[in-house]
Design goal:
Elements (H helix, E strand, L loop, with lengths): L3 E2 L2 H9 L7 E8 L7 H15 L8 E4 L9 E4 L5 H4 E5 L6 H12 L10 E7 L6 E8 L5 H10 L24 H29 L1 H19 L17 E9 H11 L3 H19 L9 E8 L13 E8 L6 H18 L1 H13 L3 H14 L4 E6 L7 E2 L2 E9 L8 E8 L2 E9 L6 H24 L20 H6 L3 H9 L1
Parallel strand pairs: 5-6, 9-11, 11-14
Antiparallel strand pairs: 1-4, 2-7, 2-13, 3-4, 6-7, 8-15, 9-10, 12-13, 14-15
Length: 507
């Protein structure tokens, strides 16, 4: 079997990676102790549990092979020296295993790049969490998975029952020896390039035989592309700036039923509610740091899955991007929520996500030597300030090694020029926000989490009041938080005048 070439989008995530921008994503899953007597027993059982299940996920035993001078996109080849002990690591949280201590450890792991000489993933077995619990921290390169495919693969490692059955057989995997070497990769690339015109001719024949469908597709694609191109202006604002190598991480936990109360009150979707909360959270946080929030315009880069049922468990990335305005300049919580919903509705009608998908695919037609330049230039030019990505999870209990999954928190990544991103994951009636940021720009990231929680509480109050009140009352703006001038000196020093001042102070 020949080596499998990365798609243009998947290879873009390799080209976008720099010393300071790490293109890996992941999450932290926390489990109850289960039937095990010691961490040693559980860790060894975990190794025996994972290895045969990797047979269902061959990509996790493959590494990336690059062609000389990047004359073509990279390929996946089997790692004939694959060692599961290199990828499944063990760690213990010091002290009482508090939330802060866990987040400190996550920050250290996610501040390091993955080793490209090996398959691009790591799994950390974490001991000594609060309540006797233990955790699994995943770290996988975005070239391998998007949010939805990572979720499906995670469920392969989990069960729907607490009855642990040791694997009956060991792994049957054997390397396909499909690494053709430098010369072989060049020859394979030449053969594929030679065959490409045949595919183009076939596509042209199909188009001529279906002129109505061709005209419709061209019209829709051109309109979508025009909408997206209008957004190609360099981003700026208090959430943008130089991206450093060190990360900060924090998370907030909510109840999904309460999100649904807000959703129902506003006739919105869960995604709309997420964007309403994020808008209010950023408004509160930036107001603390003396930004002019009443005149601030922010946009979020929101990944939109393009997967169908057949692609549900496929590896790689099947997504497009949507640029959604965040109404942080709106002081009224209910009006802010309505504006967030209206922004999403308008963008859905404009087919902006389709336009972004077309741009990404056009980048794939560029020579591989220019592919990285095209990918970086496109993302740098898009007018966005942060990433907000929402992945729905299962609403039934999951288990690993007979241990019940208590909760799971997602971990996103930062593009170059970004300083904060928010990932959302729902599981078993809960919904968790995970915040990852440049540590030098957000030394007080838990404060952002508090602001998001306050934004959520405001919207929940409005939703419940609308259900209880017989007639709508005049809405009052959200109470202003104390300005940084009235904060303790330590906080004011770290954020003398918003994010721009923070960067000046650390320059």
């Amino acid at each position: 079997m020949p080596a499998q070439r990365l798609s243009s989008l998947d290879s873009s995530f390799l080209h976008l990676e720099t010393r300071n921008t790490h293109m890996h994503v992941g999450g932290i899953a926390i489990f109850e102790p289960g039937p095990w007597q010691s961490h040693d027993e559980r860790y060894q059982a975990l190794l025996r549990h994972i290895e045969p299940r990797l047979d269902l996920m061959p990509r996790y035993r493959q590494k990336v092979a690059f062609l000389p001078l990047n004359v073509d996109t990279p390929v996946w080849v089997d790692d004939d020296r694959f060692d599961i002990n290199f990828h499944v690591k063990r760690a213990a949280i010091p002290g009482k295993g508090t939330k802060k201590q866990l987040c400190d450890y996550i920050e250290r792991v996610f501040s390091r790049q993955l080793d490209r000489r090996h398959p691009l993933w790591e799994l950390y077995y974490i001991e000594n969490l609060e309540g006797g619990n233990w955790g699994l921290l995943t770290k996988t390169h975005h070239a391998m998975v998007d949010g939805l495919s990572a979720l499906e693969l995670a469920t392969v490692l989990m069960d729907t029952t607490d009855e642990y059955v040791p694997p009956a057989e060991k792994s049957k995997w054997k390397s396909a020896k499909n690494d053709p070497g430098t010369l072989g990769l060049l020859m394979q690339s030449l053969r594929e390039r030679a065959a490409a015109p045949v595919g183009i001719v076939r596509t042209a024949v199909d188009a001529v035989s279906n002129p109505g469908r061709l005209a419709s597709a061209l019209s829709e694609g051109a309109g979508a592309l025009a909408v997206t191109v209008r957004e190609l202006t360099p981003p700026e604002g208090p959430l943008n700036g130089p991206t450093g190598p060190s990360r900060a991480y924090w998370y907030s936990s909510f109840q999904l039923d309460e999100f649904k109360e807000i959703k129902n009150a506003f006739g919105a979707t869960i995604n709309d509610v997420v964007l309403g909360i994020v808008s209010g959270g950023f408004r509160k946080y930036l107001e603390i740091h003396e930004e002019d929030v009443d005149n601030l315009k922010l946009k979020a880069l929101v990944p939109v899955s393009l997967r169908d049922e057949k692609q549900k468990t496929a590896l790689g990335n099947v997504l497009a991007l949507m640029l959604v305005p965040l109404p942080v300049d709106e002081p009224f919580p209910a009006a802010r929520m309505r504006k967030a919903k209206a922004n999403v509705d308008r963008l859905k009608k404009s087919k902006q996500a389709l336009g972004a998908d077309i741009l990404l695919k056009l980048a794939g037609f560029a020579p591989a030597t220019l592919h990285g330049m095209v990918a970086r230039a496109s993302l740098r030019s898009m007018n966005y300030n942060t990433i907000v990505t929402n992945v729905p999870g299962p609403q039934w209990p999951l288990y690993t090694l007979g241990c019940r999954l208590v909760e799971a928190m997602p971990i996103a990544f930062l593009y170059e020029g970004m300083q904060v991103a928010t990932a959302i994951f729902s599981y078993l009636g809960g919904i968790n926000f995970g915040y990852i940021a440049d540590r030098s720009a957000f030394p007080d990231l838990p404060r952002l989490g508090e602001c998001m929680e306050e934004s959520f509480a405001e919207l929940l109050d409005v939703a419940r009041a609308s259900q209880a009140a017989p007639a709508p009352a005049r809405e009052r703006p959200a109470a202003r938080r104390p300005s940084a001038a009235r904060k303790p000196a330590a906080a004011k020093g770290a954020h003398a005048k918003g994010a721009h001042a923070r960067r000046r102070a650390t320059a």
